[in-house]
UniProtKB/TrEMBL annotation:
This is Acetylxylan esterase. Gene3D superfamilies: alpha/beta hydrolase. Residues 1-315 form the Acetyl xylan esterase domain. GO terms for molecular function: carboxylic ester hydrolase activity. InterPro entries: AB_hydrolase_fold, AXE1_dom, CE7. GO terms for biological process: polysaccharide metabolic process. Residues 119-140 are annotated as: Disordered. The active site is at residues 184, 270, 300. Pfam families: AXE1. Substrate binds at residue 90.
Length: 321
């Protein structure tokens, strides 16, 4: 796969008109307010071979109070420097806590949110999605897509905001020193959390999925966006209804409402989350304190460990070296 999208200089200036319904803010304010009416998170310390880290098994109420699992991993000695709430890529789950060691080893707390109804992509999940849906394509992209109230990502994005709330409730966490982070689907969840949560210190958003859907479907046939294309193949004439529902879940719209300092990344060979869909989101992002690292010859893997080290530099800048 070669660079197939716009040239970089065009990507850097790409600001498409946002597709956004008039009740976007009211829809999300109602959704989040309803979810905040359920219970408190529970943290249970568990045994781990990570002798210099504390591991807690987390259960917190997400959308409609549904129980959502997570991990909270932090240094065993001294105060944590800040907390990162991490979201997971498509079809993945929270896996084992021992797989989340980089940030805690650098002195940070890491709150990992499980993704409801996922976890078949090589990393196990412990969270069911108790909500059914109508006929759909295999995967999550078309689940409940008939109406914005029923769409799968309404539940997942609400879980993400409640994960921030849960992390902030922990005695070891300074609620003003919280960053959200994720790659691919996790990046799409992170920008939603950034747009819907007040007072975040930062956001690390890598090769984000769930952004600028109309263009994505025009220029890539890779999964998971291809799930939407296959869904539309049997719903001829319903395209505008589908895109209207998707507009409530478009990362470009969440980015426009986000104000935290941000670090993005993009791969110019990325056929899964095309560069123009990433730049549409980055260019709309509501803070001027933002940066995007471009990997010209990488695809959806992005910068990998090169960029993970940049995460540590970003966190040093946010929280003080």
């Amino acid at each position: 796969m070669a660079q197939f999208d716009m040239p970089l200089e065009q990507l850097q200036a790409y600001r498409p008109d946002r597709e956004e319904e008039a009740d976007f803010d009211a829809f999300w304010q109602r959704t989040i307010a309803d979810a905040r009416g359920f219970g408190a998170p529970q943290f249970e310390r568990i045994d781990s071979p990570l002798r210099n880290l504390i591991v807690e098994d987390v259960t917190f109420p997400g959308f409609a109070g549904h129980p959502i699992k997570g991990w909270f991993v932090r240094p065993a000695h001294g105060d944590i420097r800040g907390t990162v709430v991490s979201y997971i890529g498509y079809s993945g789950g929270r896996a084992v806590p021992e797989s989340w060691t980089l940030l805690p080893s650098a002195g940070y707390g890491q709150f990992v949110m499980d993704s409801r109804g996922q976890g078949s992509g090589g990393s196990a999940s412990a969270t069911a999605d108790p909500v059914g849906s109508g006929p759909r394509i295999a995967g999550q992209m078309s689940s409940g897509l008939e109406h914005q109230d029923d769409y799968y990502y309404r539940r997942l994005f609400t879980d993400a905001v409640r994960a921030v709330d849960a992390a902030r409730s922990h005695d070891a966490v300074d609620p003003d020193r919280v960053v959200v982070a994720g790659g691919s689907q996790g990046g799409g969840i992170a920008v939603a959390a950034a747009g819907l949560s007040d007072g975040l210190a930062g956001a690390m958003i890598d090769v984000p999925f769930l952004s600028h859907y109309r263009r994505a479907l025009r220029i890539t046939d890779a999964n998971p966006y291809n799930e939407l294309a296959r869904y539309l193949q049997t719903r001829r004439g319903e395209e505008e209804d589908v895109f209207r529902v998707l507009s409530y879940f478009d990362g470009v719209n969440f980015a426009a409402r986000a104000t935290a300092k941000a670090l993005y990344s993009v791969g110019l060979y990325d056929a899964v989350c095309p560069p123009s869909t990433v730049f549409a989101q980055f260019n709309a992002y509501g803070s001027d304190d933002k940066r995007i690292d471009v990997y010209p010859y990488n695809g959806h893997e992005g910068g990998q460990w090169t960029h993970q080290l940049k995460h540590l530099e970003f966190l040093d800048a946010v929280f003080g070296a």
